[in-house]
Design goal:
Elements (H helix, E strand, L loop, with lengths): L12 E2 L2 H11 L6 E5 L5 H7 L4 E6 L2 H10 L6 E5 L7 H7 L7 E6 L5 H10 L6 E7 H7 L8 H9 E9 L4 E2 L6 E8 L8 H14 L7 H9 L3 H10 L13 H10 L2
Parallel strand pairs: 2-3, 2-5, 3-4, 5-6
Antiparallel strand pairs: 1-8, 6-9, 7-9
Helix pairs in contact: 5-7, 8-9, 8-11, 9-10
Amino acid sequence: MELKAKKSLGQNFLKDADVLGRIIKAANLSQDDVVIEVGPGQGVLTELLAGVCKKVIAIELDDRLIEPLHTKFVDNKNVEIIHDDILKINLPELLTTNNIQPITYKVVANIPYYITAPIIRLFLETKIPPSEVIFMVQKEVAERICAKPGAMSILAVSVQYYAKAEFLFTVFKESFEPVPKVDSAIIKITHNLQLTTDNKEKTKKFFRVVKSGFSAKRKTLINNLSNGLQIDKKEIEEKLGSIGFSPSVRAQELGVEDWKKLADILA
């Protein structure tokens, strides 16, 4: 199945057997696991997944790859190939059809860089979330997602609100064909089970505060929150002080728990 990667789809096919093995190990799969693989490409990782888990649902957008994938896995009864766009598919319907309940499946994907954030958001916010997600993303993005207070971004806060994010290992660009311009990394995102019963209004308010806080990178948190939420600066200064932060603090210095406290007291 030798096809040229499509630049328009952000394709880079992983060829390194050692890296593939490390991904399988990181996923910690058993014969009871169902895995959704996004962008199986030429099916190299799909084949390894099929050998260690109950079922693989591989979702591929590139129409050139569908027939070769069907041919490759014609004898694998535990592999289902779906020709669709992961960002347009009805994920809850797909999971319900396959009788998959919340937190009973995992996701493995080598994500095209240009749709990293939407795909992560899809699996974190779905009403039937996975227990774990193993994603290969651009290394710089992986570092941002897994950042600690002092180097936080709105992406880091958004992911870490829903889940624990871990940087597992770097995948050097030479492991791909064609060779991309930058290195990649494998991250593990473990969903917070308690969030399944969280109040939607509370979550909505949390992100309204966070988005306001990060609205202008060069400004202090007080200025951003005051402008974004239409609240007097003095009041915000007092609220920040009550959770241990100075008036000069900036958004990147707060962790997720700090943002939760701040959202609660700004109610």
